[in-house]
Amino acid sequence: MSNENNKTLIEVQDLKVHFYLKASGFFNRKRQAVKAVDGVTFDVRENETFGLVGESGCGKSTTGRGILQLIRPTAGSVRFENIELTKLGKEAIRCMRPKMQMIFQDSYDSLNPRHPIGRIISDPLVIHGIARRGSAELKERVSELMNMVCLNPGYVNRFPHEFSGGQRQRIGVARALALNPKFIVCDESISALDVSIQAQIVNLLQELQEQFGLSYLFIAHDLNMVRFISNRVAVMYIGKIMEMADRQTLFKSPLHPYTKSLISAAPTPNPKFERNRQRIILSGEVPSATNPPKGCVFNTRCPIAFERCSQEIPEYREVAPQHFVACHAV
Amino acid sequence: MEPLLTVKDLSVSFNTTDGTVYAVNNISFDLYPGETLALVGESGCGKSVTTMSLLGLIPKISGNNMSGTAVFNDGVSKKDLLKMSEEGIRKVRGGQIGFVFQDPLNSLNPVMTIGQQIAEPLMEHLKIDKNEAERRTIELLERVHIPDAADRIRIYPHELSGGMRQRVMIAIAISCSPKILIADEPTTALDVTIQAQIVDLIENLSKELNLSVIWITHDLSVVAGLADRVLVMYAGTGIEIAQVDELYDYPSHPYTRGLLGALPNPDMESSKRLISIPGSPPDIYTAPYSCVFASRCKFAFDLCHKELPKLVELGNNHQAACFIAEQLRSEYV
Ligand SMILES: Nc1ncnc2c1ncn2[C@@H]1O[C@H](COP(=O)(O)OP(=O)(O)OP(=O)(O)O)[C@@H](O)[C@H]1O
Ligand SMILES: Nc1ncnc2c1ncn2[C@@H]1O[C@H](COP(=O)(O)OP(=O)(O)OP(=O)(O)O)[C@@H](O)[C@H]1O
Ligand code: SF4
Ligand SMILES: [Mg+2]
Ligand SMILES: [Mg+2]
After folding, report:
1. Which domain holds residue B300?
2. B278: which chain A residues are within 8 Å (Cβ-Cβ)?
3. In terms of CB atoms within 10 Å, which of A155, A207, B163, B170 comes out highest?
4. How much is the pLDDT for B273?
């Protein structure tokens, strides 16, 4: 597993991804902005799993897509092995693509139902000109990839619908691995799977990481799983990172009131602990990203908010080595 | 204490173009007054079909088969929910048995205001007039902590967030003072912090109203916090049932052990591997004739592939359907 001395693979600086919605009404010329990601800063090291958590709509997927340049960021910088991706043109990004891959939540939607899985897994290799379709070399590579994710290579001519959810997710993993990437965004890659199958995929991801020194951006809403798999974790709320630290620090001694309530709200499979614990139950719901609260975006739900919180945006700063928090009270 | 509900040998099968689906096979359980019983298991294991049967929501069409009994004892009389007339079960459903489902948007009528949707069943079940129904509706919305209840009765479901809609569903579910609340994955679609609000709300209501709750979920972490007893299901079969502490401390069916082992524990080192269960659940086109878990079980031996294990009592009201359950249970002491 990685440690602090590992080299930085990806550096994300003040990344912003804003979407502009069409204004409704003739006189309303101003387009409304959804500040899906609004200035996030973190880095992912080599051989590291970086966890990203937060409630629905807080901007996790958009952050992942913005890093991979699947959506071009509105502002900020993303450096991959010291190459500034946001400045690269389409063709240059395409050349970088093999190194950065994504595994989606629902592999079913992302696998072409009309193609046998051999074709699905080999497509990236053909598209990037690494092997010719039909070549012996390609066949061998596909078998190798299928073995890697514990799928029987004999199934190479079957179609996605002939597989279970867990197996389809493995197909997605095999495809993502085809080009020997260094970095994979796992966006809720296990959320749709049953518990017993989740464990299979998580174990697989960890084995592959050890074997190939991969880095993951692991996006999930299951805090227990994120805590287990990540080296470091960032907590997002309405487009911003509230807190980031190594997993032990973040889960054992969180400093931000949002992190605290999120952790206290997440149940664990331990009846005695659950019965005795004091949950911090936040009131209200997450405000919309089109109209985020002034000052600290969390101030409308924060149990300890004070006057300054609704006026001034708290600075995201390093309060202890490698522990970043954006809160006026910390 | 006498059980409020006694389900015995409930089986449900469906005729489909691919063959007969044996969705639920000989499930039995009791539900006691005031307790929360969790039904847990992975997708497709028959949790929803079990509760739909109790609510009379399994379509009575040829090819669908339902057998067994589900005796509801409301203190005045005993009635078998599975054998009631359409008319009779409609009175129970939403009356003495309230329910909340995963997706409130599907359960709510999009073209009726929140107020109408709560008031109508009230008028029907309790035979009260419109003004009284409206007064009670506002009271109910306040009870489930919907702010500005008096104004909110005039809005439509789509104007509410997921969490708020679920509160409305809960208000409807408790509106006729039910004895039993059936909650089928009521928090699965919600965010962690909203989930905590809803769990908290249902827990408080069940205490205040002395409700018995059947809580359905695939999430063993949610169960840990709210259940008194837990029934674990696999491939349409009840494979283990026990008090929540007993079950989590001494899981005695290999599947339950596997499920709990597959979950990361908060203090687990990430260099450790999760214990995964190989393979995936069996298809359910044949009625079980051997242990339903045998094909994935690391303990399986000859007998497991030939005979169907029955639930055996392991002490402490702990039962598991496995030939070696007693041995597995005794490993803990
Ligand atoms: N293409 C788009 N156009 C407009 N708005 C978008 C677009 N994609 C995302 N958004 C908005 O950006 C915000 C962040 O969305 P995002 O999908 O990144 O959230 P998330 O954290 O991944 O949520 P979830 O946990 O539900 O997947 C949301 O308010 C969303 O509605
Ligand atoms: N009306 C129906 N006709 C045919 N098969 C059905 C019908 N309803 C349910 N089934 C099947 O019965 C089995 C049990 O389904 P059920 O909905 O009870 O599962 P569940 O445990 O609630 O799963 P989930 O966690 O995904 O909600 C499944 O295989 C399902 O496909
Ligand atoms: S900055 Fe203020 S409002 Fe924001 S989380 Fe901290 S205390 Fe709460
Ligand atoms: Mg997302
Ligand atoms: Mg269900």
Report:
1. 5-109+172-330
2. 200
3. B170
4. 85
Q: Tell me, what CATH number does B321's domain have? A: 3.40.50.300
B297 C-beta closer than 6 A to ligand 2:
no
Angstrom distance (rounded) from CA A181 to CA A124: 11
Q: How many residues make up chain A in this entry?
A: 330
Q: Tell me the pLDDT tens digit for each residue of B116-147.
A: 999 998 998 889 999 999 999 999 999 998 88
* Residue A33: pLDDT band with limits 50, 70, 90: confident
Q: In whole angstroms, give the CA distance from residue A49 to residue B189.
A: 26
What is d(CA A55, CA B197) in angstroms, rounded to the nearest whole number?
Answer: 14
Tell me: pLDDT of A167 over 70: yes
Place of tokens 């897994």: A121
Mean pLDDT of A59-74: 96
Kindly list the residues from chain B whose CB atom is less than 8 angstroms away from the CB atom of residue A228.
264-265, 268, 270, 274
- On average, the pLDDT of chain B sits at 92
Give the H/E segment covering residue B35.
none
- For residue B264, which residues of chain A lie inside 8 Å, CB to CB? 224-225, 227-229
* Interval B248-256 mean pLDDT: 97
Residue B165 Cα to ligand 5 midpoint, Å, equals: 19
**How close is the Cα of A328 to the center of ligand 3, in Å?**
6
pLDDT beyond 50 at A1: no
Min Cα separation B45/chain A (Å): 11
Q: Between A195, A261, A268, which is nearest B266 by CB? A: A268
Count of C-beta atoms within a 10 Å radius of residue A182: 18
Number of domains in chain B: 1
Of B192, B223, B271, the CB nearest to A221: B192
Query: Which range among A17-31, A286-300, B263-277, B309-323 shows the weakest confidence by mean pLDDT?
Result: A17-31
Q: Which of A166, A278, A284, A266 is nearest to A226 (CA)?
A: A266
Distance from CA of A249 to the nearest CA of B (A): 12
Mean pLDDT score of chain A, rounded to an integer? Answer: 91
Is there a domain that residue B83 lies in? yes
Q: What is the arithmetic mean of pLDDT over A202-207?
A: 92
Chain B nearest C-alpha distance from A199 (Å): 5
A161 and chain B in contact, CB less than 8 A: no
Q: What atom of ligand 1 comes closest to residue A236's alpha carbon? A: 21
Say how far apart CA A285 and CA B6 lie, in whole Å: 39
Q: Are the C-beta atoms of A198 and A186 separated by less than 8 Å?
A: no
% of chain B surpassing 70 pLDDT: 100
Residue B121 lies in a domain: no
ipTM above 0.90, yes or no: no
Can you point out the beta strands (E) in chain B? 5-16, 19-31, 36-40, 65-73, 78-80, 97-100, 180-184, 212-217, 229-234, 237-243, 312-313, 319-320
Residue A2 has pLDDT above 60, yes or no: no
Top residue of B263, B272, B273, B292 to mutate, by most chain A CBs within 10 Å, is B263
